[in-house]
Amino acid sequence: MTDDIRISIRNLYKIFGDDPATAIQAVKAGMGKAELLEKHNHVLGLHDINVDMKAGKITVIMGLSGSGKSTLIRHLNRLIEPTEGSIHVDGENVLTYNENQLRQLRREQMSMVFQKFALLPHRTVLENAGLALWVRGHDVKDFEEEANKWLTRVGLEGNGNQYPHQLSGGMQQRVGIARALSSNSPIMLMDEAFSALDPLIRTDMQDLLLDLQQELQKTIVFITHDLDESLKLADHLVILKDGYIVQQGEPQDIVMHPNDPYIIDFISDINRARVLRARSVMQKTTQIPEQSAGQITEHTNLEEVIAKSDGATDLVYQVMRNGEQVGLLSMQALMKALVPTHAATRGIHKPAGEPEVIQ
């Protein structure tokens, strides 16, 4: 395990039912989720999950309802116990932890933000924001400064004396984020954290999370069913279906090189110009072009480049990183990238039982 891997999941299975030990043998022999339910009356939650989550990065677990994404995140702090497999956090297998070690993991190493906010209605916003510190035995006067600091950071300065019912949904979720941040834990688990919010508020919350992450560099595991949200937030994207990983990797690479019809269907309707970045389409070269239409950064999305070109299709832009050219982006290459492609020949769909790990 490399130094920058904070969470490592290996060969993780979860079978729900009275006799998971027997059912898992059928799964390993090739039985899928529907057949397992029909023949054994057991539910396949997770099937041979292998993922490495890097420190200081956002790993997004995406899938439709029933894909296993919420089951997976609840394994990380052992709210759900696996049928088989291992979960290492900073090199230690948390499945071997006793009750005291597990309590410490949940209190000090991992914080959690829920879809339904999970605020205590009889406590003030300030008390909710400092809940993690209160659980550790601190009084309000001890954590007031820390809680207020994070309330200010999430845009809720001056709201500490209010109660949750006095806040809008977006404001309540900001309290949930402040609570997670005030715990000072290096890992944040976010289970459909923005799914219950209106679209505009949801976008604001995504922007807030990215702004905070740029400074704090937490290890974030984010669960969602929304592809646009996944592509916006993820450093590493894991797509689940029926309990197994269909594809995982850098989001831009998944959009450019889908390896399965399921992924192709998922990405078919996205706004590729808004999602794709210059670095994913450019020709990698340091050679200065004879004629340059200007400079763009490697993170500039194609929509911005189209606007910059004013409709011209014969332009070439220099793609820059830290003031140095790393590539060239022609408008012709940009236009080709806007057309969805079939699965790359290298991306052959792996059977459900065959692990795939991309670091």
Estimate what percentage of residues fall within beta strands: 15-25%
The biggest beta sheet is recorded as: 6 strands, mixed
Largest beta sheet: what is the strand line-up?
Answer: 6-7-8-3-9-10
Approximate helicity band: 25-40%
Which class of secondary structure composition applies to the elements? alpha/beta
Radius of gyration: 22 Å
Count of individual beta strands: 14
- Weakly predicted, low-confidence segments: 343-359
Mean pLDDT, rounded to whole units? 89
Distance between the termini: 11 Å
Alpha plus pi helix count: 16
- SSE string, helix = H, strand = E? EHHEEHEEHEHHHHEHEHEEHHHHEEHEEH
The best one-word shape is globular
Architecture overview:
- By secondary structure, this protein is an alpha/beta fold.
- 38% of the residues lie in helices and 23% in strands.
- The protein contains 16 helices and 14 strands.
- Strands 6-7-8-3-9-10 form a 6-stranded mixed β-sheet, sandwiched between helices. A 4-stranded antiparallel β-sheet has the order 2-1-4-5, with helices on both faces. It has a 4-stranded mixed β-sheet with strand order 11-14-13-12.
- The longest helix has 18 residues, at 199-216.
- The chain is globular, with a radius of gyration of 22 Å.
- The model is unreliable at 343-359 (pLDDT under 50).
